[in-house]
């Protein structure tokens, strides 16, 4: 039986998933967290920030469903979408009008769902980096 973790641990897991640099590292972490009773997903994204917001939210919801982090219910999808929008709102001041590229990490245990976005922001090689984090409770 797995230990029950709180929102702080689940948020840290989402950040770690967003920081993975390869599919292999992502899979290894996913397997480790699964043993702890924590479901995870991660998905890459890149594009112009303003036009990408809708697609980023959609990709987070689809990845969470595909990986079994959430069920296909209105409440679960809304929790992931809301947490993703919260995370994006935290990096918006740096990203508005620029390109972003990076990864979205999602984690869940019981009623805690966290979404972390880790993006390089900017033009060419003059990137800024930012992490946004959102959390929601779901049934």
From TrEMBL:
<keyword id="KW-0010">Activator</keyword>
<keyword id="KW-0694">RNA-binding</keyword>
<keyword id="KW-0805">Transcription regulation</keyword>
<comment type="similarity">
    <text>Belongs to the HutP family.</text>
</comment>
<comment type="subunit">
    <text>Homohexamer.</text>
</comment>
<comment type="function">
    <text>Antiterminator that binds to cis-acting regulatory sequences on the mRNA in the presence of histidine, thereby suppressing transcription termination and activating the hut operon for histidine utilization.</text>
</comment>
<dbReference type="InterPro" id="IPR036482">
    <property type="entry name" value="Regulatory_HutP_sf"/>
</dbReference>
<protein>
    <recommendedName>
        <fullName>Hut operon positive regulatory protein</fullName>
    </recommendedName>
</protein>
<dbReference type="GO" id="GO:0003723">
    <property type="term" value="F:RNA binding"/>
</dbReference>
<keyword id="KW-0804">Transcription</keyword>
<dbReference type="InterPro" id="IPR015111">
    <property type="entry name" value="Regulatory_HutP"/>
</dbReference>
<dbReference type="Pfam" id="PF09021">
    <property type="entry name" value="HutP"/>
</dbReference>
